[in-house]
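Appendix B. Raw example, untouched.
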Amino acid sequence: MRVRHLTILGSTGTIGHNTLDVVAQHPQNFQVVALTANTDVDALEKQCLQWQPEYAAMSNEDSAQQLYEKLKCHGLATQVLAGVAGLQQVASLEQIDTVVAGIVGAAGLLPSLAAAAAGKRILLANKEALVMSGQLFMETARRNGAVLLPVDSEHNAIFQCLPQDGSGHSPGKSDSVNKILLTASGGPFRTLPLAHFDDITPEQAVRHPNWVMGQKISVDSATMMNKGLEVIEAHWLFDVPHDLIEVVIHPQSVIHSMVSYTDGSVLAQLGNPDMRTPIAYCLAWPERMSSGVEPLDVFDVATLEFEKPDVQRYPCLQLCYQAIAMGGSASILLNAANETAVDAFLNQKIRFTAIADTIESVFNEISTTEVKSLDDILAVDRSAREVARDFINRV
């Protein structure tokens, strides 16, 4: 395995921390060239001291200046960049070959797209990049020879179970594939009576039963929006019609996803719920290497359960399927409305049940349109956030 030169977008988040944990186990195989964070200056300072990257980038000028002063005191020669331009620059550096796209939400779109345009090997953990710009993103990657390797545990499992053509592309539209079965834990409220949903607090919503994740993605898991976004991501990643992607609730989170074939076979990828497994798979692909994760003991698991999602319990999942069917700008509206609503919920401005209501209000107020460019995408995103904020203020 040759040495890979890395940029880690979102290095202080869950994906970033887990990536660096895996990299630390194989120092001979990786060189960390660039690290980025949103506004957590102290966390990025610690990472820079440990990894001494050539570049570090923060989301705004104030945070970047604070980081610069701290690193200067330590005598580090790390070049500090700021803003979207800084993120795009480190995602497309000539000396790197691999970009870990771990920034959560729409903020990850532009640097991930920059990595695709530069023809990098992209370890994609930012599902919003494909939700917002699926066709544009995939065309950009193909045109520039970028390789997309999915880090999300479910898409990584699908990638491992699908036939591959050797280039990093898994042709889900193969005549041999019957269906993709996308597993979901069901989140922390899988068995909570619906009558209590209005009383759900942010503290309860971020306590995922199986995975350690950031606040936003944890809330998305609780509403199953995360799974709906993953359906959209799988649709683009594997070129599969959305009606051939079925969500299956699997509370143990041991089977990470399955692929059903026309001959009656169902291939599944199993493992303990730990993000280091898919990260290590992508970092080493097409080889494999140790991740630090304990091997799965099937005798400890003993029982595997499967359920169909309850539409009343998870309206956000249905809204995602609706967005795919609507086409055009619908998935951009969906993502923007959800991000705005989740932020409002975490700040105790709306109830948990109002997240889905906010998305529906945006769908009702903004007509879907065809999007042909990045400017179109960003314009729709801004409009949807404005309408969502207006609805939240009324609520």
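End of appendix B.
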